[in-house]
Amino acid sequence: MKKSLFLTFAAMILAGSIATAKESTLIDFTLLSADTCADEDGNPTQNSRTVMDYSVAAGASFTSDQKTLMKTSLALPEWEVVLNASAQNAVSVATSQIVAAPVKESADVPFAGKEVMGCRVLFPTWANNANCKIVPAFDIPAYEPLSDANENGERQEPTDEQKGKYLFDDGYGVVRNVGTLKSIAVTTMGMNFPHQLYVLLKDNDGVERRYLMGDLYFDGWKTLIWNNPDYISEVRTREIRVYPIYPRGMPLVKFAGFQVTRDASHVGADFIGYFKDVKIIYDLAVLSSDRDIDDEDLWGIITKKEKDRQNGEMARFGNKQVNRYIEKSKMATEETFSSSLSEGSDSNAQQSEAE
Fold first, then answer.
1. If you average pLDDT over residues 152-175, what whole number do you get?
2. Sign (positive or negative) of CA dihedral 265, 271, 272, 278
3. Which of 167, 202, 209, 316 could form a disulfide with 144 if both were Cys (CB 3.0 to 4.6 A apart)?
4. Quick one: which of 133, 111, 113, 110 has its CA closest to 121?
5. What is the SS3 string spanning 203-258?
6. Which of 81, 190, 94 is nearest to 137 (CA)?
7. pLDDT recorded at residue 71
8. Is 19 exposed, middle or buried (0-12, 13-18, 19+ CB in 10 A)?
């Protein structure tokens, strides 16, 4: 009896000692520089790893040349600033934007010489609460297969090494096999703004949650950390829950954006922020994801559900992007009026032809 109790106690101690959490980079903005789909001046506009083609949602009225331009990605200038209703006005919406911010080569940080996310938001100057969300151009797909893109942003057939892997893993917005979140970290540059910063995450059921990282009332680079107050480190006091592994799918989290909140008592006007990456520490949902039988190859349940969800997402995303493309094509490009007094004006030319 004593020997049995001793073995049980030893097993519990061993289980507690090996139940360690894992760290992964959820998204690294230095990986999102534009490197494909060059414009008329030869400047790349999209990120080759994350480029997506939304011409599938365009109608037959568009030419093939127009459809080749219907691409977007997680390239930093493609991200959007969404202001809440009380903060929206024509000037704020037009001014608030995301850019690729180059870090100086002389900077004393490991990512010197690379581009990070730069954000400008124009908050109201009057006393009212306001907030904005910094979100990607599209909801990051969890099951988009990994493949290379050519110089025009067109996806190629996946290689043998790429089969079974996904496009947005490894620092591009998705982390898989995530159980309980223990901590979240954001590397950001403070500019002495008193605003609060939140991280927005979605799980594999599409449920979005936000996590308060703290305020930005500091100067220079800093890692803001959220620690799960309900995380239980002692395995013996945990409530053990076991869920079916298939066909619910491997639990995952994906990056949904940032939220910056400005209190009514704080100064409004311009907010400037810079972000390098988001990391998470978490328990593994499943100890080993390498299973003896490939359930998905056999049944295809997750693939069908995810394909239906992805088709719906791409249709909504594609319609929005197509409408933006149409609106951009209709926009006036002239900056000033042509002069009616110059010798080369159209009226003088027409008069010369008449004579």
1. 89
2. positive
3. 167
4. 133
5. ECCCCEEEEEEEECCCEEEEEEEEECCCCCCCHHHCCCCCCCCCCCCCCEEEEEEE
6. 81
7. 83
8. middle
**Segment 320-349 mean pLDDT:** 68
Residue 219 β-bridge partners: 191
d(CA 292, CA 177): 17
pLDDT band at 152 (very low <50, low <70, confident <90, very high): confident
For the chain, count helices (H), then strands (E).
Answer: 6, 16
The torsion angle over the Cα atoms of residues 208, 140, 84 and 221, rounded to 10 degrees, is: 90
Amino acid residing at 160: D
pLDDT at residue 5 greater than cutoff 60: no
Instruction: Tell me the three state secondary structure of residue 283.
Output: strand
Check whether 12 has a pLDDT greater than 50.
Answer: no
Tokens of 27: 């998204």
Q: How far apart are CA 309 and CA 316, in angstroms?
A: 11
User: What contacts 55, CB < 8 A, 6 or more positions away?
Assistant: 62, 67, 68, 70, 71, 318
Q: Please tell me the pTM assigned to this model.
A: 0.81
- Cis before 77? omega within 30: no
Q: What is the pLDDT of residue 70?
A: 75
Question: Residue 231: which of 184, 285, 284, 181 has the closest Cα?
Answer: 181
Segment 236-242 shows an average pLDDT of: 65
> Which residues lie across from 46 on neighbouring strands?
36
Joined together, the tokens standing for residue 39 give 């414009």
